[in-house]
Amino acid sequence: MGEVVQVAAPWVLLAALLLGMAALGVAALDGALAARAACRPASVGAQHPLVETARLLRQRRRTTVAADTLLRHVAVGGFAVAPLLMVAVVPLGEWVLADASVGVVWFNAVDVLVWVLVWLAGWGPNAAWSLTGGYRFLAQAMAYELPLMFALTAPAVAAGSLRVGDVAGGQQGLPYVVWMPVAFLVYCVGVLAFSVRGPLSPAGGPVISSGVLAELSGVDRLLVLAGRAGLLVAGAAFAVPLFLGGGSGPLLPGWLWVLVKTALLTAALVVVRRRLPDVRPERFLALGWTVLLPAALLQLLVVSVVVVVRS
Amino acid sequence: MAVSLRPLQRVLARWAVRGTTVLLVEAPGGWAARVAVERAMAERGWRAASSPADADALVVCGTPGDGWGEVLERTWAQLPGPRARASVAAPSEVPGALEGLAASLLDDDVQRVDAAARDLVPADVEPGDDMHPAGLELAGGEDDLRDGLEMDVLRVPLGPVLPDWPAGLVLRTVLSGDVVVRARVEVLPGAPQRQDPADDVARRLDAAAQVLRLAGADDLAARAVRLRDAVPAPRTSSTDRPEDAPSPRTSSTHRPQRGALSGTSSTDRREGGAGAAQRRRSAGDVRELRGRVERSRVLAWALREADVVTSSPTSGAESDAAPASAPDDLRDVGLDARRRTRDDVRTLLLGLLDLDARDDDPGRRIRAALDALPERLVGVDVVSARLLVAALDLRTDTLDADDLAALAPREDDSDDDSSDDDSDDGSDQHMHHGHAHG
After folding, report:
1. Which residue of A has its CA nearest to B428?
2. What is the pLDDT of residue A219?
3. What is the mean pLDDT of each run of 10 residues along chain A (311 residues)?
4. Cα–Cα–Cα angle for A162, A165, A171, nearest 5°?
5. Nearest to A38 among B17, B42, B51 (CB)
6. What's the whole-number mean pLDDT along residues B117-123?
7. Contact A210 B42 (CB under 8 A)
8. Does residue B412 sit within a domain?
9. H helices within chain A, ranges in order?
């Protein structure tokens, strides 16, 4: 793991392609697991993303009375863009789209942007279930965002840099996940929370008729579905340089290691979120502030002490 | 140019129809039909839609009675299209109905004509003004509700078109944010139909599956659905089953189809003396599922109600029932507003999965539950409300004519002046239509 090189802007297309394929993979795995639970052939379930994409491409877009069209479009488009903004700072081996000196903060800023997107998606359609989804997401956001922020800080403190490439490079031989497992777990909870699906998805979920998705159809719905799958992938991808040693590993080239680690972590998150029931925001709020936040702060303290002692 | 796109459009349509989403509407008495539709949908890889915007097809299960016409039309108008609709009064009609839906959705020409005939962008009915954008009333404010916020009071009808919701039930709620501050129960009737007690176990498993699905416990819900579809037929011969109008074959025809439709379940075959063994095994499976629900601390944690404090605890209950009228047998199932515990949903769920508990008179239980519901829901958030309603297993088809008359939709309530405008599914507008234009 040496220096990372910033590549030219057109490579963003490759990033988008990889992200899109990974999002399809997430949906396929989800579909296969659901099919298996219902004792149906997993292969049929795995086709779900393609079938759903065809269905939504063919479906008309609809809107509601007195909808806030502009904000709604911002939300829908934003979902497609946010994951790309996240992976822009993730080095793929030695290449990165944006070698920002504040990459970690950038990622944090984008994940806060998800608050705005979900809220606007809830507000835009001017409908009860959507709005309820928005309310509930903001309540939950209070629970996961601060712990997530401190979890992000731990690797940055250890590496002494906010540049994602430096953080990845700082894990020679010993990935940060080994000695900051709590930060890693808190980070994963945060990823599950901002990907608007599964146990930490009060913005959607069957109990409020899909919440922020309730009034979306056609390509609007497709973009949000793809975006939230992309957010999960982007969250997993960012964990690779931060906690999992980046592209370091035997035999395979660095870029391939990044992809493999991202795929494994993504799959693990998909499996975990399927096994848990939906957690209500107020319950998660208590957990976030009484367990996750103190745990993340303690982890940060340990990391800081280690850094000071080592220097 | 347009001609060359045709093959591509056909491929897209074929793929799209493989994942058709169906908005299921169950009228009271349509339980067997709905279950048959769900099973046939699973065979085809179709899934249930969560809202009209998500749906390609509208399937009405059972025979809707008075008051359904406008509800169904408004729901139908909300489907984005390509769209198709079907009515399934009896399980025997299911294969033909789904075949028809697929054919209609595949037919680009039909869909094009349908699409050209309507505009999906709602024309603003009124020019409106600052206080009535597009002719809609703004969200209101009411005194001393939960948090003192202004303009967050919404009137939202829950049901009758809502997934995992009792057939025909309409809960006219006033929400402060997402907390119920008032609720009124109405029931849209279906065709009268006598109960088949033999369905009791399957119906409990169905209700349990609904609760688990709403709670996001997808794997457990799938398990409950499988057990529901595998419930062995009881010993009673087919002549014991009620066969009365208007859909005489409802209860007698769906059972033979079970084996044919649920190809994955080997427990369906009932031949000779194997029936008793299957019943035992099925009961064992249900006990196992109940054990999993009982042991899961995460699920218990997730099902526990929020402790919402309403500053005006007496503001609710439009029910005709006196507060003290909850019969003894309701005290244990979470409907006594003064004795509520936050684990009521879980208690009810475990009760549904307890095969030893018999529900001898569901009609009386359900009438009492509907009477007690408005008061119980005050101060409960909308998520807990939906879980609670699902867990109560409100079989509206057990209500008799007197009950239905008492619970019929009312238009005379000034508190709810727009009931006719919003009677679709609650996913419409949160600021309801005022009567300014009506």
Report:
1. A127
2. 94
3. 76 91 93 88 88 93 84 92 93 88 94 93 89 89 93 93 90 88 95 88 86 91 94 95 88 90 95 88 89 95 92 81
4. 95
5. B42
6. 72
7. no
8. no
9. 12-37, 42-46, 48-58, 69-87, 103-123, 128-159, 164-169, 176-179, 181-194, 218-243, 254-275, 281-287, 293-310
Range of the domain at A17: 5-310
Task: At B259, list the tokens.
Answer: 């084996």
Give the pLDDT of residue A192: 93
pLDDT at A291: 94
Report the pLDDT value the prediction gives residue B68, as an integer from 0 to 100: 92
Tally Cβ neighbours within 10 Å of residue B391: 27
Cα–Cα distance for residue pair B294/A240, rounded to 1 Å: 38
Q: Does B124 touch chain A (CB under 8 A)?
A: yes
Measured CA to CA, the distance from residue B67 to residue B81 in angstroms comes to 25
Task: Please give the backbone phi and psi of residue B434, each rounded to the nearest 5 degrees, phi first.
Answer: -85, 170
Judge whether B70 lies within some domain. Answer: yes
Cis peptide before B246 (omega within 30 of 0): yes
CATH number of the domain where residue B35 is located:
3.40.50.12280
What is the spatial distance between Cα B221 and Cα A246, in angstroms, rounded to a whole number?
A: 39
How many domains, chain A?
Answer: 1
Instruction: Retrieve residue A1's tokens.
Output: 């793991």
Q: Among A129, A132, A143, A137, which residue's Cα sits nearest to residue A283? A: A143
Q: Pick the more confident residue, B129 or B21.
A: B21
More confident residue, B255 or A91: A91
Contacts of A65 in chain B (CB under 8 A): 122, 124-125, 134, 136, 428-429
Mind telling me how many Å the CA of A230 is from chain B's nearest CA? 21
**Element of type H or E holding B47:** strand B47-48
Amino acid at A127: A
Question: pLDDT higher for B293 or B245?
Answer: B293
User: What is the rounded CA–CA span in Å between residue B118 and residue B120?
Assistant: 6
B379 in Cβ contact with B180 (< 8 Å): yes
Give domain status of residue B20, yes or no. yes
B-interface mutation test, from A29, A65, A201, A287, most B Cβ less than 10 A away: A65
Q: Enumerate residues 6+ apart whose C-beta is below 8 A from B24.
A: B34, B37, B38, B48, B49, B59, B61, B163
Q: B217-255 burial, b if ≥16 CB within 10 A, otherwise e? A: bbbbbbbbbbbbbbbbbbeeeeeebeeeeebeebbbbbb
**Residue numbers of B between 11 and 70 with CB closer than 8 Å to A:** 12-13, 15-21, 42, 45, 50-51, 53-54, 56
Q: Domain total for chain B? A: 1
Count chain A–chain B contacts defined by CB atoms under 8 A: 181
The answer to whether A276 faces chain B, any CB pair under 8 Å, is: yes
pTM beyond 0.90, yes or no: no
Q: Residue B33 falls within a domain, yes or no?
A: yes
Q: Are A108 and A152 in contact (CB under 8 A)?
A: yes
pLDDT for residue B297 is more than 50? yes
Structural domain boundaries, residue B82: 3-116
Contacts of A275 in chain B (CB under 8 A): 219
ipTM for the complex shown: 0.90
